[in-house]
C-alpha cells in the first residue's frame, strides 16, 4: 500500500458490519485492521500470534479464563499468543487491531465469524 492518511472516523463510518475486520494498512508483516464489535465473540486463541486491541469508541471487555480486562476509548491491551480469550462488546465498539497478516480472526476455532486472512477486505 502506498503512504496515505487514514481517517479513522471516516473509515468506521464507511461500513456497518460487526465482527468483520477490514485491513487499512500494513507494516513489517503486520496488518492494521479496524472492526466494529457488538455482543459476545467466540472463545479462541492464536497459537503463534500476539493480538493488539485499541478501543476508539465504546467499551470492550476482553474475557480471559482467569479474569477480564475492560477497555475504554484510548486504551489498548495486547493478548499474548496462546492465550484463550473472548472479546465482548455490550455496546457498539470501534476497535483497531494490530496483528500479523496471516492471523485468522477466530484463531484455532471454526465459527460462522471465521474469515480467512486472504479474504479480508482492504479499505
Briefly, what is this?
The protein has 123 residues and is mainly beta.
Describe the overall structure:
The chain is mostly beta strands. The protein has one domain: Jelly Rolls (Sandwich), CATH 2.60.120. Helix content is 5%, strand content 46%. It is globular and about 40 Å long.
Structural class: mainly beta
Shape summary: globular
Domain unit count: 1
> What distance lies between the first and last C-alpha atoms, to the nearest angstrom?
11 Å
User: How many DSSP-defined strands?
Assistant: 8
Order of helices and strands: HEEEEEEEE
- Unreliable stretches: none
CATH class wording = Mainly Beta
Q: Into which percent range does the helicity of residues fall? A: under 10%
Radius of gyration: 13 Å
Descriptive labels:
mainly beta; 46% strand; eight-stranded mixed sheet; 1 helix; 123 residues; Jelly Rolls
Topology:
Blueprint: H1 8-13, E1 22-27, E2 30-40, E3 51-57, E4 60-64, E5 67-71, E6 76-79, E7 85-100, E8 121-122
Parallel strand pairs: 1-8
Antiparallel strand pairs: 1-2, 2-7, 3-6, 3-7, 4-5, 4-7
Amino acid at each position: 500500500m502506498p503512504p496515505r492518511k487514514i481517517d479513522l472516523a471516516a473509515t468506521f463510518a464507511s461500513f456497518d458490519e460487526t465482527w468483520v475486520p477490514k485491513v487499512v494498512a500494513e507494516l513489517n508483516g503486520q496488518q492494521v485492521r479496524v472492526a466494529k464489535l457488538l455482543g459476545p465473540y467466540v472463545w479462541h486463541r492464536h497459537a503463534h500470534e500476539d493480538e493488539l486491541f485499541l478501543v476508539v469508541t465504546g467499551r470492550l471487555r476482553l474475557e480471559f479464563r482467569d479474569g477480564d480486562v475492560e477497555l475504554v476509548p484510548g486504551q489498548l491491551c495486547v493478548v499474548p499468543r496462546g492465550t484463550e480469550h473472548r472479546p465482548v462488546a455490550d455496546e457498539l465498539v470501534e476497535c483497531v487491531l494490530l496483528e500479523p497478516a496471516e492471523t485468522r480472526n477466530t484463531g484455532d476455532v471454526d465459527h460462522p465469524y471465521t474469515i480467512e486472512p486472504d479474504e479480508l477486505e482492504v479499505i
